[in-house]
Task: structure prediction
Amino acid sequence: MSRCALFERLTQAERVVHISAPAGSGKTVLVRSWIAETGLARHAAWVTVDGEERDPRRFWISVADALRGTEAGSALVRPLTAAPDLDGWAVVERLLTDLAPLADRLWLVIDDAHLLGTREVLPQLELLVLRAPPELRFVLATRHDLRLGLHRLRLEGDLTEIRAAELRFSLAEARALFGASGVALPADALVRLHRRTEGWAAGLRLAALSLDGHPDPDRFAAEFSGTDRTVAEFLLAEVLDRQSEEERRLLLRTSVLERVSGPLADVLTGRSGGERILQDLEQAGAFVISLDGCRSWFRYHQLFADLLQLELRRTEPNEQTALHGAAARWLAEHGQPVEAIRQAQAAEDWAMAARLLADHWLDLYLGGRGATLVELLARFPCRVVAANPELTAVQVAGDLIQGSLEDAGRHLATATGALAAVPADRRGRVQVMLAVLRLFLARRFVDFPVVVEEAQRLLALTEGADAAHLGLSEDLRAAAFISLGIAEMWTLRFEDAERHLRRGVTLARRIGRPYLEFNGLTHGAYGMLLFRPDASQAEWSAQAEWSAQAIELAERHGWGEEPLAGMAYAQLGIAMMYQGRLDEAEPWLERAERTLRTEAEPAAGMSLRYARAVLELTRGRGQEALAAFRGAEKLAATLAGRHILVTSMRSRMLQTLVGLGQTGRAEQALAELGEDERASAEMRTAVAALRLASDDPRAAAEALAPVVDGSVSGLRRVRMVAPLLLEARIRDTLGDQAAAARVLERALDITESNGMLLPFLVDRVPALLERHRHERTAHGALISRILDLLPADRSGEIGPAGIVPPRVTEQLTDSETRVLRYLPTHLTAPEIANELFLSVNTVSTHTHHLYAKLGVHRRHEAVDRARALGLLAPPVGAESRSP
Result:
């Protein structure tokens, strides 16, 4: 199959191409395919080295014969025959003389070059490479680097190197390989095979052969490993059987590890020299992969590790548990707790594994490695977790990561109740653990009195003499400062909140805890956006900077799909919404909706749903906004504390019902509210919108008056714009254009000072703005900006909350219109039928049809919608029985 990118590299290569990769990586196939693809067959001399070519005479005869087989070489290279006194150095000099006149490009390919002897042939080949004419090019395919003075060629720019990483098949190339083999593989199965083989060419080709005619490709892909017969035979013959007894022992006994170092290998083999052996194996292309620049840590190719583990079970069946245990102890002693826990679990040393996880869970939680923590917990049997109070406590952290807040509360209560069962020497640490978990859980539930209490307690403990003994660290101190700042933000103690948040973020940055810094930046920006929307321009810039830093950290560290990143995306989108940048805001909100798990962060989820509802209102999509409001209301109900935006959100939801013509439902919802909430500025605004929609502007003005004159407190300056816009509409409806202009100017004053255009895009008053900019105003440019952001077609009336008034989907018939006129009355269906001289069935049919055309389901909704559409007159006095 064609591998275009590699073909291009070979075509554009320097004078020497060095292809170094393990067995089965596709070196030979690549070069042969390239020669065939580019039509170089008559211009390429091919020499395959085998064991006999260690004899210099045989090798150089093969080279000369291959060169003579090419178009250019046939005329230049003299025949070479075997003779006892044939000298390799003399042959090289003869070849250099013969090829000196070479004018056309000629390629010499030496495959399996790693089999060449090092004493004579390699120095002779190096001489040929260094002194060859420019048109003679070399391709050297080998399993390990050759000692050919490659460093000189590299420095001179004469070397092109292709290594194992570049030879690995991409997913698209793997798909093409299977397609060329006639194997139809489902996408998921292909991904699994590609991941399992790590793109290794031989592994993919062997899998394709095994799949030919296989009855269950999905199952094959799920179970494919290095123990597959064809793969195992290849790896045994080409790799494992070629190693010495010492190398083989090391490979088998360290195969139980995810990664291995020399000292760790020495522990498991009981011998020394492990690092040298590992480095030699990597150099030899034996499927040993270096993980660092110092070549001190290594891993094995997955399929090779499978084979090694199979061989270990076959040759030393009783050693695995002991090897896992020894590895766990060494890893724990050398600061590798996660790998130590996995090895202890593999050895079924549950006590050691539990103790290690209890000691290190916070490091994982605050380090952004929540998935690892959950995975480690899942490896414990349920009976072990249930019997161990420390593990039960760690399970709370796992529940928080997965968004199972109810389970977290239950496990926290269980662990707290079992504290007496914890050994005395560990009880203090567990008490601290439980305090931390109470803090984290309370944050999720917006239970900020508990957050403040636990954060202050932890800060006091971190300053005490027992801090080290209790396992308290600087990261926990930073987390406590951040949590305290969040709680203070929610309780409107802004100066204290900002001080503690900045202190926590700075400490997290100083101690190298980027995930903790990310956490602090995200929650700090969230709090500033949520609680200080009327902040100064400088404060808004600081909020935007914190959001940007949080997103940059998330992208740099691979946390872009974390729920916490979803909060940062939402903040950026909401900030853009406030500024009227709706088209820019929507993609960020959509990204937040894909990322933020509302079950894990219900408070942030409620804010996001609210933001989505408001965005839908700016588009005039009332039904979609209503659905989003209901989602926000549902999340708000899960919180232990009251979300500061709940009343504002409910007010907007009621105004949306009014805008949709569902005044009856709005009245009912208002009646169900508590007295304090009904008296709030937000709810007075909703009542005023309802009265105005019911054609009672005087009642609307009366409801809104305490908000406009400031006698009802609790509404921050930026949130005053919406009631002021409603007051302007009311005054205009009452015919007092001068008063309407004064109120509108107040709203524009506020907006000019903070740049928050959103209220004008939700509560649209285009006609008032058009009229106002022709009067004496200090805000002509601002009015033009607002009008430019409103829909181009502003000829029609805009309803409450910016909702475009509904339209009838289909014209009502005369009969349906006559029935509609009776719906505002108290007449029953039989009584309406009697009035119209129709049957009850006919009235029911007409009612059903007009409900469908109005887009409603109940009688009172039909009346509200018909009045909004102008099909019925607004109510005046008592309702009449006559049409």
Notes: The chain is about 65% helix and 5% strand.
